[in-house]
Amino acid sequence: MSGLNHATGRAIARKVLTYFSFFCLLFWVGFPVYYMLITSFMDPPELGAKPPNWIPQQPTIENYREVIIGETGQRGDYGTTTEFSRMMPALLNSTIVSVAVVFSNLVIGGMAAYAFSRFDFRLSRAAYLGVLMTRVLPALALIVPLFIILRKIGLINTLWALIFTYTIFILPLTIWILREYFDTLARDIEEMALIDGATRWQAFRMVVMPLAVPGMIAVGVMSFMEAWSEFFFALTLTNSLTYPPLLMSFRNLHQVNWNALAAATTLGVLPPVIVAFVFQRYLVRGLSEGAVKG
Amino acid sequence: MASASISKGTAQSRKHWDRKWIPYVLLAPALITIFVIIISPLLTTIYYSFHNIDLIRDRTTFILFDNYIELFTSRLFWKAVEINLKFAAIVVTVPTLMGLFFALLLVEDFKGRGIGRTLLILPWALPWIVIGLLWNWLVNAQFGAINGLLYSLGLIDKYIPFMANEHWALIFTALASAWRQTSFSAILLLAALQTIPEDLYDAAKVDGAGMRARFRFITFAWLRPTLTIVLLYNIVLGFLQFDAVWIMTQGGPGDATMLISVLLYRYSFINFDLGMGAAVSNVLGLITMGVGLIFVRLIYRSQSTYA
Fold first, then answer.
1. A26-30, A288-292, B111-115, B141-145 — which is least confidently predicted?
2. Strands (E), chain B
3. Are A270 and A190 in contact (CB under 8 A)?
4. What digits encode the pLDDT tens for the residues A123-162?
5. pLDDT tens-digit profile of B27-46?
6. pLDDT value at position B3?
7. Does A96 touch chain B (CB under 8 A)?
8. In a 10 Å sphere around its CB, with 0-12 CB exposed, 13-18 middle and 19+ buried, how is residue B172 labelled?
9. Which of A49, A268, B125, B132 has the CB geometry, 3.0–4.6 Å to B247, for a possible disulfide?
10. Domain extents in chain A
11. Of A98, A100, A285, which Cα lies nearest the Cα of A177?
12. Where are the domains of chain B?
């Protein structure tokens, strides 16, 4: 009997510990995000409350409306009224850049990964290792020459500069992950298709690609997140065309409407957060495959 | 390509013909662009670091190691190294330990696990720049959430201007980085935990292994390769972090959060001393490459001993 009690006692202790830890997780992740969210639903005067209102007393969507139409401070709280007018164009630019990066990365990276996986050619191993080595280079360290090169080509302060650089910086990871996928896909089926008279392209499209879809989704999602979030290149190569450097520029204003900033921040993180939640499974897979093997 | 014209006939020889040029064509876009955007700037950075670059008079003079000598004898650099080591210490320990803690929690079977796993991804899904802003809100001296919380709990009666204090500024910039990196670490560790075969535990139970022994010899042993990788990623972040720190403090107050990366930015974009900036870049690059090499060696060793 006492043994049984001992066992249930331990089960209860374990449960209590589990839920206590779960609470820690919720607090650790949730508290910062929750505070940004309630700030975005408050009127500026309420933000100064001491102690803070942990639940907004008069929740409002005014901040969101003002950020979306690009005119903040209409309620006379803060001086300038147009500082946020660049927000929606920046979100659009971020979308264009991210989507373009996903596709160009999949095409260029997919081609290279397929070549590494299926062909034995001179210097194949050296080229592969070379490509992977570029992953450990700090992007920060390359910025000055990169700036000069892009200025020579005339791409400074264009979305092309970002699409170009993001695609290339994520290529090594893409090639790594997709090559692993291509390697595990049965070669013989593809060979059979080739012998049956299919061209390489047909064999690739009908046999290899359908099987590699999970890997391609994982890579696509990761490159989307990367392109959406990138700050440093966007800051130095463009005049705040995309969302991250634009957010930074608000931070430097003397009188920033913090509530509008919270609303703008929230709007801007919706795309990556939604993508991450929807493709959670692929993302975790891509992350662990990319990290553990790369 | 002489064989091309002869071989048009059979499938077998067409394949041979394929093999010669197809891989090069497939690889060309990737290799050429990687060369232009990554390799050539890398070579240029190395070249710059041995030169004095005078942007105003548009003159580049070869000075061999002078930039490096100036760097290694400057107090500013060693200060940045010291600050960066403290910063990295937090960015390495906090995410690794908390990541392990959350991963072990989320592999348990309990109500709310699904929510926990989804929420875990949230910090990772946020851009660094947003992490910086988020933590600015937390530590703000007028309306910050941490001040608010301490005040609500009655622990303080006056808001603390955290970011005006050198120590708090360094701790909070490091914690902000740790916050996102914890999720990354936990995601990797959780993925590894989920691959542990259940029968290992059953077999150990049959053999009479206690909980502690099971953790040590199964869970921990299984996680070791992933833990190593997580550690190395966290070390690299500890030395390469820039975005979140830049938005929170821009290196301040004073020089309190001047990481090596911040120093690099100052040299290149504030003083416009490209030669010195390149020298700092190369030092930083060597540190991360060093970590990368350790990483490759460890993986090789773990493969040869465990596999």
1. A288-292
2. 51-54, 59-62
3. no
4. 777 777 777 777 767 777 788 888 888 888 899 999 999 9
5. 888 888 888 888 888 888 88
6. 39
7. no
8. buried
9. B132
10. 2-78, 85-293
11. A285
12. 2-48, 68-306
- Per-residue pLDDT, averaged over A237-262, amounts to 83
- ipTM of the predicted structure? 0.87
Number of other residues whose CB lies within 10 A of the CB of residue A200: 19
**Distance, CA of B195 to CA of B226 (rounded, Å):** 12
Query: For the domain B68-306, what is the CATH superfamily, name and number?
Result: MetI-like (1.10.3720.10)
- How far apart, in whole angstroms, are the C-alpha atoms of residue A177 and residue A117? 11
Structure confidence at residue B214 (pLDDT): 83
Q: Extract the tokens encoding B250.
A: 């821009």
Q: How large a percentage of chain A has pLDDT more than 70? A: 90
- The answer for A 152-211 residues in CB contact with B (under 8 A) is 164-165, 167-169, 171-172, 175, 194-195, 197, 200
Phi-psi region at A157: left, alpha or beta (left = phi > 0; alpha = psi -120 to 50)? left
Q: Please check whether residue B137 is in contact with residue A36, taking contact to mean a CB–CB distance below 8 angstroms.
A: yes
Partner residue facing B37 (CB), from A119, A165, A225: A165
The CATH architecture of the domain made up of A85-293 is Orthogonal Bundle (1.10)
Separation of alpha carbons A266 and A221, rounded Å: 20
Give whole-number Cα distances, B222 to B46, B193, B203, B234, B292, in Å.
Answer: 41, 8, 15, 20, 22
Tokens of B106: 């989320």
Those residues whose C-beta lies under 8 Å from the C-beta of residue A81, and which sit 6 or more positions away, are: A71, A72, A73, A74
Window 230-269 of A: residues touching B by CB (8 A cutoff) are: 230-232, 236, 243-245, 247-248, 251, 258, 261-262, 265, 268-269
Amino acid identity of residue B298, one-letter, is L
- Per-chain mean pLDDT for chain A: 84
pLDDT at A79: 52
Report, as ranges of residue numbers, the positions in chain B whose pLDDT lies below 50.
Answer: 1-13, 16, 304-307
